[in-house]
Write the structure tokens for this entry.
Amino acid sequence: MLLKNLTLNDKITDILIEGDKIAKIGKIDGEGIDCKGLTCLPAFCDMHVHLREPGQTAKEDIESGTRAAVRGGYSDVCCMPNTTPVIDSEYMVEYVKLKSEKVASCSVHPIGAITVGSKGEFLTEMRKMTDKGAIAFSDDGRPVENANVMKLALEYAKDIDTLLISHCEEKSLAKDGVMNEGLVATELGLKGISSASEEVMVAREIILAESLNTRVHIAHISTKGSVQLIREAKARGVKVSCETCPHYFSTTDELADGYNTFAKVNPPLRSEEDRKAIIEGIKDGTIDVIATDHAPHTKKDKECTFDEAANGISGLETAFSLSYTSLVKSGVITLDRLVELMSVRPRELVKLPSNEVEEGNKANITLVDLNATYKIDRNTFFSKGKNTPFDKWEVQGKVVKTIVNGKLKYDDGEIK
Ligand code: DOR
Ligand code: ZN
């Protein structure tokens, strides 16, 4: 495959792909795909998605979820184990891998559960699961409540050199809250979730990782306090990394006004002060990664009262545009830094090979039109989950083509 006239590092050039590799970058003769006006980036890697397979395929499956992924510019996704049943054995890991080989549009890397059934009691056989392809471990969707279980898990993970991803939520503080604690919750008469419920757990994970001198990754941080805790821990050398999601820097809890269940997510959308602190953390390097926490749900899961509605936002198809618009277009960070957050750093954390656009590297490439503006339309999503609070938002920066392992998998609205 020959890609002609694309923009790479501010220069116009061509790329020849042979097999699954980038064979040559430079002026190349011959007919090819005209990429005039498109900027070439290393394809993104999402280290936090929910593909819902097995068992919850009304919400999503590997096929639909990875179609959404390539539309979003991703060549790699790491899927969370809170499926039915939970991905907590080597057989389950193998199932996800085998099914993905058959139906997925991009590479799928299963994340195994930390505890059996994600019940927080007994550790899973992480080594066996790693051998079958589990790329990291998490009980995402719920916290590992027992600190000693988390400590043992961190020791075990250190032993086999894998990454633990912690869903930070102190249940006794979160109680039965359904949105951010604050003015909006009070006005709506809804029960609030305090920032402390996230931050107490972030502090615990930092203390455990520090005492064991091992690494830990904090999922979906949403509060000013979490950013500050991680900033301070990093400054004293703790091996803590973290991610946030586009919804935590693009909007606030005000979006839940009118009991908008599409704005219900866990952790909840927070205050303007938190949003600004998240942006600060992205800017100064405290935040390592932008992940989507792509959490597709059915119409039924969301068409109900706010209290009853499921938590989650379908995020794969809007992540780049929202991030580009809120962070790069607005002048907060450069496009290079956004690529670091969406492609380079997540790969480092889960130990996937780098896919910088260089000769000899695997051809995992995303071509974006940075000048294109468009209105997000949830009805066009490839994901079964149409649950986005960003419908009709005007955004800039559009994924036009995604190449996965040398093959064009997404081309301007179409799955290949
Ligand atoms: O909003 C969320 N949705 N947060 C989680 O922690 C779980 C996720 C899901 O699985 O739907
Ligand atoms: Zn999640």
